[in-house]
């Protein structure tokens, strides 16, 4: 046994020696070092270094549920009105990349929003600019909608901002609201190129060149006249206009909007003064005027609309930590979206329909084409907003807000469109829809809604509970009223066929229901998690 044990040990030693010799002849593979993700503390919480680079990245996002109720006044057949409930779910993904350079921080930020909405919660505004897609089913058309928006995609470097970002003109931008019901500019996604100069004591000045498309309200064009064409007179008989042609009123993209901003940010709060110019630029008159034309109409000249805005934010920690008050007011000529007069009922349209079967339609056009001269006549608008946020405890907060606004059209503009209507009616185009002005001096002219001076009033409040960090559970309620500033207007809900019976209204054989104002109340519930 002793000899056997010695033989086995000798054999094992021999094999071990041979294996070691062979292993020494083979190349040695070194293990690749593991590169761990490192925390980047230079830009706040959540940033980490992208492996192999000196760029810090933060990934964040949001999930939201929202449901609500809004009063509806009609169930008229053939319309999308009547929904009193609405629901939506939304998602948001943010990527924030920053690199420190010899010239300061180089930043790139992108944000993608998407969601699904039904009922009155669907957005006509986003559908009009191609960011939302409506369903086509019988019960879904006009009631169900998917949307996707490249909300942000910009670069910041040494004072330069380039890409898709919030307009620099904006200040309050519905900061304390869930729905964003108050008037006031709030263009969160536009294409721009801006440069900001900063000075001491929190002072800064910005010059921004911005995409005009996201600030346009359509030029007025009466329905029934090959819309969007604005008719003009090109023929006269014994001094009276008879021949009618049309100006292509689709706006061209030529000059950008130019925005200038002066701002101060300090411990007490912020203040901002904004100004902007906005070109209105339409097409030519039709190449082949109507028969009998014998007058040459001058090319419609471009017009520079403009807007100014002042805003003030006052931090109020003396009431409670986190409390703040916003005050803001804006005025615009030919640039209605800069005052945000259309914020609640829907922008990018001539007439609103945001009340789910409302009685009065507001005209939102930035300008009309004078049918006698072929030139643009601008509208004017203004808005004023106040909003206060109060923290009852670190977990409970409330906001109260209110706004008032008006939009006016010159008396001459409506009279000129009335003269045009008279000629079109004589030529057999009497039924021009709810955008018809009517012949001056008639009952219909006094009652029609088109190009009427209107006002808008909004008041509301909210309460939000944040039981843990980055989770909000809240409810908001508000009241909105719109109305004509002078006289009465046809009730589009109680007399839906009035615009098809102009002759009856003028002769007195048909007496439509009339109103001076319309209103709506809305309640929204939201659960939102940011991460």
- Proportion in helices: 10-25%
Tally of DSSP β-strands:
24
Strand order of the largest sheet: 2-3-4-6-7-8-9-12-13-14-15-18-19-20-21-24
List the total number of helices.
Answer: 5
Task: Tell me which oligomeric state these chains represent.
Answer: single chain
Question: CA-to-CA gap between the ends?
Answer: 73 Å
Order of helices and strands: HEEEEHEEEEEEEEEEEEEEEHHEEEHEE
Give the integer mean of the pLDDT values: 88
Query: Beta-strand level of the residues, as a percent range?
Result: 35-45%
The biggest sheet amounts to: 16 strands, antiparallel, barrel
Per the principal axes of the C-alpha atoms, what is the gross shape? Answer: globular
- Cα radius of gyration in angstroms: 31 Å
Q: Classify the secondary structure makeup into a structural class.
A: mainly beta
Low-confidence stretches: 20-24
Protein architecture, described:
It is a single chain. The protein has 531 residues and is mainly β. It has helices spanning 2-25, 124-128, 411-426, 443-447, 502-507; strands at residues 48-49, 55-70, 85-101, 104-119, 132-134, 144-157, 160-165, 190-198, 203-210, 229-237, 240-248, 257-266, 269-280, 303-315, 324-333, 367-369, 376-378, 380-391, 396-408, 454-465, 471-484, 489-490, 514-515, 517-530. The longest helix is centred in the first third of the chain and has 24 residues, at 2-25. The protein is globular. The model is unreliable at 20-24 (pLDDT under 50).
